[in-house]
């Protein structure tokens, strides 16, 4: 009886607990490939999970009323933290997807990758004569690396075997290392306007490559991830000062058609999990 009375005495907290439970259960079902049918372009599970997280977010933003004072403020802060956790459970990069859906997700990123690399190629023409060679040398391998990664992504989608996945793993790690190296090399360009242009161009490529790396990581074994990380000699922590998180958030939000707030959480989660894996 006491638990029932608590529900009536603390309806907001009880509702939040229910929504957190729904989000958690939906995440587990999704990870097991259980969809409960289709809903629009997604599944019933993802629809329920998204609605639960959205409602939890609304609860977390309720203003503290004057009657409850500090207690209400504390409850709102706690609900905000739980809302963040609920969003993390839904990150499309790192879980809740089958190998086939991840492979399709990777392939869906390839047009953005090809466009970003094309922008890199055109950026060199806008630089001063003394700066263009530095940028060209730093990004010389982007075209070949992009073509290889796109080809390997499509090959894995068509034939999702361990041997093809190993080739995809090698391709994405190699490209990620090229991006990291280019960020360090273009730091030698000291003109503020030029440096902004080159960093924007490289960061666009880097955002897509990091997204694909996270997706590949999500379907790779612990042994494979450890091997991939050992091949990453230029770590993300080293190039972080040159990374543009705002650009990454905008690209992720645009690609998945989701709110910027969600994309911000996803980018943070991907960067954290990738660094924790040793990249």
Give the gist of this structure.
By secondary structure, the protein is mainly alpha-helical.
How much strand?
under 5%
Number of helices: 13
Distance between the termini: 52 Å
Which secondary-structure class do the elements indicate? mainly alpha
Helix content: over 70%
Mean pLDDT: 78
- Along the chain, the helix and strand elements come as HHEEHHHHHHHHHHH
What is the number of strand segments? 2
User: What spatial form do the alpha-carbon principal axes imply?
Assistant: globular
Biggest sheet strand line-up: 1-2
Q: What is the count of structural domains? A: 2
Low-confidence stretches: 28-32, 60-70
Compute the gyration radius: what is it?
A: 22 Å
Topology overview:
Blueprint: H1 2-9, H2 11-31, E1 38-39, E2 42-43, H3 44-60, H4 69-88, H5 99-123, H6 132-138, H7 142-158, H8 162-185, H9 192-218, H10 222-230, H11 236-239, H12 245-256, H13 260-276
Antiparallel strand pairs: 1-2
Structural notes for this entry:
This protein is mainly α and 279 residues long. The chain has two domains: 2-88; 99-276. It is built from 13 helices and two strands, in the order ααββααααααααααα. It has helices at 2-9, 11-31, 44-60, 69-88, 99-123, 132-138, 142-158, 162-185, 192-218, 222-230, 236-239, 245-256, 260-276, and strands spanning 38-39, 42-43. It has a two-stranded antiparallel sheet. Helix 3 (44-60) runs antiparallel to helix 4 and helix 12 packs across helix 13. The longest helix has 27 residues, at 192-218. The termini are far apart.
